[in-house]
Amino acid sequence: MDVDNATACSVMYDGTGGAGSITFVRHALPVYREHELLIKVHASALNRADLLQRDGQYQVAPGELAVPGVEVAGQVLACGSAVSGFAPGDRIYAVVPGGGYATHCVVDQGMAMPVPGHWSYTDAAAVAEAGLTADTALFTVGGLQPGQKVLIHAAASGIGSMVVQMVREAGARAICTTNSPDKVEPLYALGAEQVLCGYGPDFYQGLCESGHGAVDLVIDFIGGRYFDGNLSALKPGGTLVMVGLLDAFEWQANFVPIINKRLSLHGVVLRKRPDAEKRQVTQAFLARWQPALASGDSRRWSRRSTPSRRWPRRRKKWPPIATSAKWY
Predict the structure, then answer these.
(1) How many percent of the chain have pLDDT more than 90?
(2) How many C-beta atoms surround the C-beta of residue 156 within 10 A?
(3) Hey, which of 131, 155, 187, 242 would disulfide with 160, CB 3.0 to 4.6 Å?
(4) How many CB atoms lie under 10 A from the CB of residue 23?
(5) DSSP 8-state assignment for residue 248
(6) Beta bridge partners of 214
(7) Whole-structure pTM value
(8) Structural domains in the chain plus CATH codes
(9) Residue 62: how many CA atoms within 13 Å on its side-chain side?
(10) Which of 200, 229, 221 has the alpha carbon at shortest distance from 267?
(11) Exposure string over 69-90, b if 16+ CB within 10 A, otherwise e
C-alpha cells in the first residue's frame, strides 16, 4: 500500500446525540511518529465512553482524539523509525486515545499487542480495554490470590465478564451480581461460582443467604447505593476496587467499617492515565495473559466487537448505553 498517497475515513459525531448523529468523514492518513505504528483497522469495539461521547456526555480530554473508538485491532502498514518488535503485516490489537472508528489508526508501540494466531480481529478488539482494566483491578491493585473470593457487580458487562474469567483462571472464586435473569446462565458459563440475581443494592442480603459469607475482594462498577453493602461484604483486611460509578457519583456513607475492618479502597481508570503508565499496564497484561489467550478459545475471552467494514450499514443500530458485554 502506498501510505503517502492513501486516504482514510473516520466516524464522527455531529453533536446532536443518538444514532442519527453519526457521520463519516474522509481525510488524509493519520500521521505516525517515530515510536508509533500506522495500522489498517479491521475491527473496533464499542466502548461505553464512545456512547457517552456520541450523546454529548463525555468531553474529549486534551491529548485525546475527537474521533471515537478506543479499542482496535488491525494490520500494521508502517512503523516509525524507533519502533522495534513490529513490522508491516503484523496483526495487532490495542487501546488507543481515540481514533479507532476509522479505516486507519495510529498505535503507540508500547500499547500494541500481537493478535493470537487463531483469533479474529473482532475477537481481539473486544478484549483490549476490558482485559487491561480487569487485570489491573484484580492483580495490580486487588492483589488477587488463588482461593480468594471475589464479589463482582455488573458482572455481565464487558469488563465484568473479563473479570469473571480471570478470577476463574487464577484459581479464585467469583461471586457475581446481576439484575437480569437472562444473564445468570451466561455468567455461570464464564466460571461464576454463584450468581446473585435481582437483589440490586440489597445484594449483601443475597450474599448472606447464599452461605458464602464475607469476601476478600470487591470489584464494583456501580458505586452509589452499593457502597455500604460493599463494606459489609468484605472480610477484615479486604479490598474494594471501584472501576465505575453507574449508580451515582456521590454517596453519603458510614466509613466506620473501613477503619474497624482495616479495609483498602482503590480506584481504577485506564483512559486518563499517562502514556507511560498505559504501557506498563499493557506489558503486565501481556506477561500474565498472553499464553492463556494464545492457547484458549477466543470466544471464551472475547464477547462482541464491530468489524469496521460494517459501520455504514450498522450505524443506525448502535444501541443506547449497554450493560452486557461488548456490542456487535
Answers:
(1) 67
(2) 25
(3) 155
(4) 11
(5) B
(6) none
(7) 0.87
(8) 7-128+273-323 (3.90.180.10), 142-267 (3.40.50.720)
(9) 0
(10) 221
(11) bbbbbbbbbbbbeebeebeeeb
Q: What is the per-residue pLDDT for 302?
A: 61
* Cell (9 digits) for 274: 499517562
β-pairing verdict for 91-95 and 113-114: antiparallel
Give the type of residue at 301: W
Residue 252 has, within 13 A of its CA and on its CB side, a CA count of 0
The grid cell for 70 is 478506543
- The DSSP letter of residue 31 is P
Identify the CA nearest to 28 among candidates 9, 48, 49: 9
What end-to-end distance do the CA atoms of the chain give, in Å? 29
Measured CA to CA, the distance from residue 17 to residue 69 in angstroms comes to: 16
What residue type is 312 in one-letter code? P
Distance of CA 259 to the CA centre of its chain: 31
Alpha carbons within 13 angstroms on the beta-carbon side of residue 314 total: 14
Task: Name which of 25-34, 71-80, 85-94 the model is least confident about.
Answer: 25-34
Cα–Cα distance, 65 to 68 (Å, whole number): 7
Pairing relation of β-strands 264-267 and 36-44?
unpaired
